Hints:
By secondary structure, this protein is mainly α. The chain is 65% helix and 0% strand.
Amino acid sequence: xxxxxxxxxxxxxxxxxxxxxxxxxxxxxxxxxxxxxxxxxxxxxxxxxxxxxxxxxxxxxxxxxxxxxxxxxxxxxxxxxxxxxxxxxxxxxxxxxxxxxxxxxxxxxxxxxxxxxxxxxxxxxxxxxxxxxxxxxxxxxxxxxxxxxxxxxxxxxxxxxxxxxxxxxxxxxxxxxxxxxxxxxxxxxxxxxxxxxxxxxxxxxxxxxxxxxxxxxxxx
Length: 220
C-alpha cells in the first residue's frame, strides 16, 4: 500500500470516525427513536468500519501489516454502499419531499444532518474509491451490499404493517420515509426499487474502486 493511499485513507477514515462519534453522542441525548432511521444506522456502521480500517492502517504504519485485508475492503464496500444510498436518497428524494411540505430544499443538510447526509457519506465514498482500491474483490461480493437494506426493509415493514390506521392506510409516524404512498400494496414496488438502487450503487462503487486502482493514480 503506497504512502499516498495509506495516509489519504487514514485521514478520511479518521474524519468519518470522529464525525460519527460526535453526532452519535448528540443523537443519543434525543432518545433511541433516532436510531430507527436508515441514515443513522448506515452512518454508525460506516463509523465502526472506519475504526477498524484506522486500526489496520496504524498497524501498517508500524510495519505490523503490509496491506488492508480483502475481507475488510469488502466490508468497507458494504458500509460505503449504505451511506452512499443515504446521500443519494437525501439529494434526489428527501430534499424534494421537504420542498413539497413547504420547507427549503437544503433543510435536509442543516444541523447534524450535514454530517450524516453529506460529510460522512462523501468521506467514506472518497476513501473507498480513491485510496482503498482492490482488483481482487470479486463481482459476486457486490450482492452483499444489499444485506443492510434487506434487514432494514424487514424492520421497516414490521413497523408499518403493525401500526396501520383503522382504515388500512399507513400511519405516518411509522412510515417516516413515506414509502407507502397512500395504498399499502405500493410498498412492494418501493422495496424492489430500493433493492435495485442499492445494488446499482454498490456495483458502481465496486467498479470505480477497481477502475481507479488499475490506473495507479496514487502509485508511490
